[in-house]
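Figure 2 data, in text form.
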Amino acid sequence: MTMIHILVIGVCVRFFSVLVCHILYALQKAVLPGVISLLSSALIMLYLVCSKPTGSESDIITLAYINTLANNVPALIATVWIFATILRGMWPRFRAFTWNATQEVLGTGGALFFLQIIIMVLFNVKELYISWFVGAEAVVDYQVYYKLIGMIGGLFSLALNPVWSAVTKALVEKKKQWIRDLYRKGMGLIALFGGAQLVLVAVMPMVVKLWLGENAIEVSRVAGLLFCLYNLVYMWMMLNYNFACGMGRTKVISIWLTVAGAGNLLLTMWGYSVYRSWITVVVATAVAAIPCAFFVQKDIFGVIKSMNSEKEGK
């Protein structure tokens, strides 16, 4: 119970300490949240390497303390630094609290929370669907492709961290051409990552054999190419997601993501009746997400076009 209490306290403190990461993103210092996360992991790893376990209950309690401190101290130090330098004189104060601002923040936060839920329903339930419709053993095959090819989509999503706040800033400053150019660079990066996927599919049988040895699954290049298709749609969707949120178009993307989530389930059920394989779930997700990505992209460029009209009319 002692360990649980320590970890719960650590999680509660982290609700506050992690806020500095969002401030850093808003200040266009997207590298620093990664540094904070790296320092937290490094401190835990340093303890594990240097400590000498005794085999007693005190080891797990000490590890709970280290985990709590490592996950909060770097962020708290960054909080003190940011308000002592860049945001000097802007320390949070209770007298600055207003109900109007609270309602506005909670309203925006609620919309973004709903977005997180529905995008999770669309892209993060594949293992559940595979287990339901195909069988739990098929999840193992899916995970091999996901860990290799899906890693590319994960790296792309990580590279998008600064985009949201950058688009918001550019929108306020009416930098329409900059927003358009940034989107095109994002699409170019998707094409580059797509080429990297094809190379990975070509060498995947060898990589899987080296990775899993005698337990290696038989790699299907067709399944690999279909997974690449899904990954391209996923990257396209995440690019649109960051732009749409940065432009405040949460209602539009919420509607289309909800439609895509429902379509994903229906397509998965139909696809399983035609071809009983885990790749059916992946393809169904990609097909369901394509209309969403298309219409959200159309809405993004509609906002950019309205910026043109607004500036020309002044």
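Caption note: The chain has 13 helices and no strands.
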